[in-house]
Design goal:
The chain is an all-alpha fold. It has one domain (2-42, 58-86). It contains 2 helices and no strands. α1 (2-33) runs antiparallel to α2.
């Protein structure tokens, strides 16, 4: 049973970490560029993707980027919690 708990915590930690980093990159891109990252997780940067852009203003994309960064911080906090639980440092 402990092995399953450790595997679940490790999987959750890695998954939340990957999601947190992906959302952080997307949010920072939106804030700095004033538009969304092309494609799904930047796949629009690949040739021949044919990505259609939304018609938001730059200011609206920057506001959305702040929301995306907040979600990224949440994922990173979950990842940290799972890591601490995996190491047995939580109560």
């Amino acid at each position: 049973m402990e092995v399953l708990k450790a595997a679940a915590l490790a999987t959750g930690c890695v998954g939340a970490l990957i999601a947190g980093v992906a959302f952080m990159v997307a949010g920072v891109y939106e804030i700095s560029a004033g538009r969304r990252p092309p494609g799904f997780l930047g796949s629009g940067f690949l040739p021949g993707s044919g990505v259609v852009e939304a018609k938001w203003s730059e200011n609206k994309w920057r506001q959305n980027g702040l929301t995306v960064v907040a979600v990224a911080v949440g994922f990173l906090m979950i990842s940290l919690w799972a890591l601490l639980a995996l190491l047995g440092l939580t109560g």
